[in-house]
Amino acid sequence: MNQCTKKILTLSTLIVAGMHIINEYTDACISPMTSSKNEKIFNWKDLHISYSEKGNCNRPALLLIHNLSPSSSKEEWCHIDDALANHFHIFTLDLPGCGKSSKPNITYINYMYVEFLKDFIQKVIGKKTNVCASAYSSAFTFMTARIYPEIIDKMIIINPTPLEKLYAPVSKKGKYKQNILNVPVLGTFIYNCLVSKSSITDTYKYKFYYNEDNISDQVIEMAYYNAHFGHSSGKYLLGSILANYTNINIIHALSKIENDIYLISNGSNNKKTCDDYKKYNENISSIYLSHCRLLPQLEIPETIIEKICNICSIK
C-alpha cells in the first residue's frame, strides 16, 4: 500500500468517525419530552403507534391527522385538541415514521397510510369518524375516503397539497436521495443536517408561519424532538418522501368521493389549489383564512376551532 493510499484511507476513516461522533452527540442532546396522561399505544403490524384520546365517547368522533413529515407529530394539534374535546370525542396520533411512533427502515408508501388509517378508525375509534388532516396527509386521507367511505363522515383538509405535486412519479433522482439517506453513518449525518434546529426554525419561519413572532421555542423544540426521536430513524420517511413514494394521483378518487369535503386554506397562496380540487368534486367547500401559512392550527388556533365546530354544526 503506497503512502497516498494510506493517507486517503486514514482521512476517510477520520471523516466517518467524525460523522459518527456528531450523530451520537445529536442523539444524546435531544431533550426528553414528557408523555401526556392521555397517551396510548395502538399495535399495528408490529409497529407501536402513539395516540391520544380526549373527550366524551358519546360525542361525535374527530380524528386529527398531522402533516406527513419527520418533524411532525400529534403535538401539531396541541393548541386546539383540549377545546375541541368539549364538543367531540377527539383522537390525535403520531403517524408511522413520525413522533413517538415506530420508525422502521422501510419504504413508506401512500397505500400503507390508507390501510393504517382504516385500521385505526375501525379498531381504535370504532365508529364513523370526522377527519381533519393537515397538508401532505391530505392525499392518503382522500384515498381512504374513496376506498372505505363507510368509516369517514365529514372531511376537513387544512392546506391540501397541490394536485400536480401529488402525481409526481417516483424518480431516479429521488431514489438516489433515498439510497443516500439509508446509508448508516453518512445518511444519518446528512439527515441530521437537513433537520437541524436552525433548518427547522427556518422552515417554520418561511413556510409554516405567517408571523415569525408567533413561533414559540416549545414548538421548535418539539419539532426537533420529533425529527430525531428513535435515533434519527425519521430519515427513512424523509427518503420515501423525497423519492415521491408517498405521492399518489388522487384525481380519479377525488371525483368519486361522496363525503362532504371542506378545504381550509391560507387564501393568498392556496386559492388556486382549492380551485383545482373543486373542479373534480362538487361536494367541496372552501374556507379562506388570512395571516397564516401551512399550519394555522398552531398559529391561529381559535380560528381553526371555530371553523371545525361550524363545519360539524357544533354550537
TrEMBL record:
- TM ranges are none
Domain named AB hydrolase-1: residues: 60-162
| Domain of life per record | Bacteria
Q: Which PANTHER family match?
A: ALPHA/BETA-HYDROLASES SUPERFAMILY PROTEIN, ALPHA_BETA-HYDROLASES SUPERFAMILY PROTEIN
- Family annotation (Gene3D superfamilies): alpha/beta hydrolase
Alphabetized InterPro entries for the sequence: AB_hydrolase_1, AB_hydrolase_fold
Q: What is this protein called?
A: AB hydrolase-1 domain-containing protein
